Amino acid sequence: MMLIIINTILALGCILSAYGGFFSPEYLKAIPAISLLIFPLWIVVMPCLFVIDLIFSKRAAIIPLLTMVLCVGSFLDFCPLTIFQKPDKDSSTFSLLTYNTFNMDNYNKTSMPSSLTASAIIDAGCDIACLQETTAKLRSYNQIAKCQADTLNNLYKYQISSSNGLPIWSRYPVKHILSVNLDDTSAKLDKYIVTLDSISLTIYNVHLQSIGLNKNDKLTYLELTRGQGDIKKIKADLLSKLNHAFKNRAEQAIKIREYLDNDTAENIIVCGDFNDVPTCYAIRTIMGKDFRNAYTEAGRGPSITYRANRFYFHIDQVLYKGNIIPVSAKVLETGNSDHYPVKVIFEIAKQ
Predict the structure, then answer these.
(1) The whole model's pTM is what?
(2) CB burial readout 224-260, b (16+ within 10 A) else e
(3) Which pLDDT belongs to residue 231?
(4) Contact indicator for 188, 207 with CB cutoff of 8 Å
(5) What is the largest CA-CA distance in the chain?
(6) Cα angle: 256, vertex 304, 236; to 5 degrees
């Protein structure tokens, strides 16, 4: 009986973690959202619990087994198992990169003769690059070597800067439609229209609010990951900021969704730094019933896009709808930003 009770409690925790993104932080604060972040731990815990139950009580083993079945959808969102497809020979394709460049700086502050971030963009070779935290024009970055700048200028004929730090670089003609501050935080949005050879593509380049941790907060979090730290201090320093950030991102997502609902374009991509994982409430709000996540549809395996301060989460997303189909989605573990770029290859479906 005790084993069944323990299994039930753990199963409920796992289910909450798997589906925490369905609960609005407006009402339940950060608990479901935080539980969502630790879902990868449950992927390890539940199979281990199942094996233990088989040894001591086969009847109790039904609980973790059913829990894993219930949570398989969230598992596939976290760890897609798709096989990269090859586009039809007769179809057209285009590639898109979304990348928070950390303003082309080196997040670990080491000195380098050239920019690994610029090299990452060049090596990706995408048709369209949507950048975040890129506040200056290309020629203004001293850390980018001249040969790199020349290559980027040759690669991207169309470069539109943004006062929001959300520029777009493209091989195809681009028109800048609008720049928006979503609220009084750092959350911003820029809208572009890219004219490809066969279709018109509307792109929303977004950057939602971060948690906003200062140096002391990050030290507190590092202590927590080591199994140390004062619980009261953690609650006072971190939870209040998490509550605030999750609530604000939910409100920002509602505003983005309003723009999407009023947009009559057929082919739309929403990409950028969402500062949250794919199944969170904010991203579910933006996606609604008509958008899909490119990495979930065409990626393979678990991945992270943020690598600093042990916040190892996939927070950079590419959402899409319309007459386009992702055939490959990869996180490129390169560059010297605190983020990794995400590259997606889309096939333009036949009408």
Answers:
(1) 0.93
(2) beeeebeeeeeeebbeebbbbbbbbbbbbbeebbebb
(3) 66
(4) yes
(5) 70
(6) 75
pLDDT(230) > 90: no
> In Å, what is the CA distance from 181 to each residue of 27, 178, 208, 261?
25, 10, 10, 18
Residue 334 makes CB contacts below 8 A (sequence gap 6+) with 116, 119, 120, 123, 340, 341
285 neighbors 254 (Cβ within 8 angstroms)? yes
Task: Give the integer Cα–Cα distance in Å for 63 and 50.
Answer: 8
SS3 track for 188-207? EEEEEEEECCCCEEEEEEEE
CA distances from 79 to 7, 294, 300 (A): 24, 13, 7
Neighbours of 61 (CB within 10 A): 19
Residues 110 and 133: their CA atoms lie apart, in Å, by 19
Residue 150, token pair as written in the block: 């020349």
> What is the DSSP secondary-structure string of 195-246?
E-SS-EEEEEEEE-------HHHHHHHHHHHTT-S-HHHHIIIIIHHHHHHH
Give the pLDDT of residue 351.
66
Q: Which of 32-41, 69-78, 134-143, 291-300 has the lowest mean pLDDT?
A: 134-143
Output the CA torsion sign for 264, 265, 269, 270: negative
First to last CA, the chain: 59
Question: Looking up tokens 């290559």, which residue turns up?
Answer: 151
pLDDT bin (cut points 50, 70, 90) of residue 238 is confident
